[in-house]
Fold:
Amino acid sequence: MTGMPLARVRRAIEAVEDPELPQVTIGDLGIVRSVAVEGGVARVALTPTFTGCPAMGVIIEDVGTAIETLGLRPAIDTVLAPAWSPDWITADGRRKLLEAGIAPPVGSGGQDLDTLLSLPSPCPRCGSIRTRRLSEFGATACKAPHVCDACKEPFEGFKPL
Amino acid sequence: MSDLFVRYLLRQGDRALVLSQQLSAWVTHVHDLEEEMAVANISLDLIGQARTLYAYAGETEGSGRTEDDLAYWRPAEDFQNPLLVEQPNGDFAMTMVRQFLHDSWAALYWQAMTESVDDTLAALAGKAAKETAYHLRHAKSWVIRMGDGTEESHQRAQTALDHLWGYTDALFDSDDAEIAVVAKNIGIDPTNFRPAWLTGVAAVFAEATLHQPVAAQRRGGRDGLHQPGFDQLIEEMQSVARAHPGAQW
Structure:
């Protein structure tokens, strides 16, 4: 099948869900680096959020399936440079995370780690900045558990790495 | 050059993988749930770094060996990790002091490697530098908490440091593999960041009320000579892959 509009292929790929964060798509997370279609092959470059992100295997399979559904053959590369940054999460992605009760990352990738970790994650439920990080590591490589001292609810927040 | 570069990549991969394997042995044995998550996450990041290094080593070698082949099908004597990371887990103090000494080194190493002229290594370094800086914060907080804690926690942290300090000089050793990659601006001479490493760890020891030991320095690891117990560590790590060759899950 030739002449498949690139935009349609890109949309299908970007719509693949993150298996560990099904509230958002890989397009929302900004890990789809590039998409090209040539001679029936859709070539995609993906950038993992963390080097050991265990979701990458499933994401690659799901992207492959999404491409095959369009009648194309997948060629998927993992690209590390430049390193993924939380800045790449789209505005839509940040909104969806908040709606799912997950605080989007604070600050920007250019700031040093101590500064980033001193910034409070606003509570996704009540919006208060009277929140604390309970631990530096959580249930997935990209998030850490927090608690809000205003509404007393626990929540997960994206690591600013 | 290619052989030396492969050896260099394997060494860095071995350092990350062996430490990862050691940490993962703590899972289900740590004193609280948060630390369970911490050791598992740090271990996972180290596996991610090792995978990238092994995959690149296999590609550079051109022999078709995959990251799994390099992790699971090399004999123990082919591993060239520094002896520091193969020191037994011991108690939690031993594990965290080991992690602190390693992460202090690795954070500076990856930061410097972001300047590598090799695109793959510079890219890996970009992410690994952030991950390692995060791990270092965690290990450092434990060293301070234990060192400046109770009499017992202080004693345990000091005992760990007294043992592990003798494996730190070797972190800054170079041989023909390092010299070759440094000459091409692919790698970095670790002695360049040794003063920064010493300043960093000394500041934490002071805050933790720990004494910086004077210890006889041990060499090995990078020449394939390991300490007793290393064979079993590697054997356990490789046992599933070897029991089910080619298995996929």
Remarks:
- Chain B has one domain: 2-243.
- Chain B is about 65% helix and 0% strand.
- Chain B has a mean pLDDT of 95.
